[in-house]
């Protein structure tokens, strides 16, 4: 197995931490406690402990901790990432990543041929715990199960001003298979107001910022999004990327780290096919 990625997590915390895992071909949810997985049963976010023995975290394969019907990606949502001269928006923009974009901790990000670049984006993910329709921000905490790490992988040219705004990238730049790595787990009772977020590629820091620079808080985003589309249990709102989004290349190891949550690590590989008409 790969080097474990849980060494960044404090084990003296009282915050429940939920994960999804595979062991010996079986998939289940568990609660993380002192580097042990306590097996759970029941529907998403309504789990109960089983009689199963605790499992060492090193003996399981971590999977994305949710099976979302959709990931709602937000942008822009950092004041420092606004284009020069752009006023702070009154409401966020949304992109939908389908369930097929889901990727797992240690999973491979396939780089499709025929696109100018594929970029990393470190983002805090809001995990929805119950069906949410037209939720006021004052009640948003009742619908948020917890938080996780998201790499909002995006195909597009960020180096040329205005290039990413062309329709072809806005339509499909975010929805390729595997373009939504999520994990390594869900941390509940986390205050998202001032967390350090960081992206490293091959150990070198690319993005480093704090969520205190968010334009829209998680509660505001739940309100905005749930007034547009119903959020289902397990859906994720990806809260936008800080400055310095850059391309990733074949062979890169991409690490997304968020304070209080942990590290989401993935491996970039060229997709082994020829460009199609859609890629041209």
Structure description:
There is one protein chain. The chain is mostly beta strands. The chain has 2 domains: 6-63, SH3 type barrels (Roll); 70-270, Fumarylacetoacetate hydrolase, domain 2 (Alpha-Beta Complex), CATH 3.90.850. Helix content is 5%, strand content 37%. It has 2 helices and 20 strands. The protein has helices spanning 167-172, 218-226; strands at residues 17-23, 26-33, 36-41, 48-49, 55-56, 61-63, 70-75, 93-98, 102-103, 108-111, 118-119, 122-128, 144-151, 154-155, 180-187, 196-201, 204-210, 236-238, 253-258, 262-270. Strands 1, 2, 3, 4, 5, 6, 7, 8, 9, 12, 13, 15 and 18 form a 13-stranded mixed beta sheet that branches. Strands 10-20-19-16-17 form a 5-stranded mixed beta sheet, with no helix packed on it. The termini are far apart. 43% of the residues are buried. The model is unreliable at 1-13 (pLDDT under 50).
Topology:
Layout lengths: L16 E7 L2 E8 L2 E6 L6 E2 L5 E2 L4 E3 L6 E6 L17 E6 L3 E2 L4 E4 L6 E2 L2 E7 L15 E8 L2 E2 L11 H6 L7 E8 L8 E6 L2 E7 L7 H9 L9 E3 L14 E6 L3 E9 L10
Parallel strand pairs: 7-18, 9-15, 10-20
Antiparallel strand pairs: 1-2, 1-6, 1-15, 2-3, 3-4, 3-5, 7-8, 11-14, 12-13, 12-18, 13-15, 16-17, 16-19, 19-20
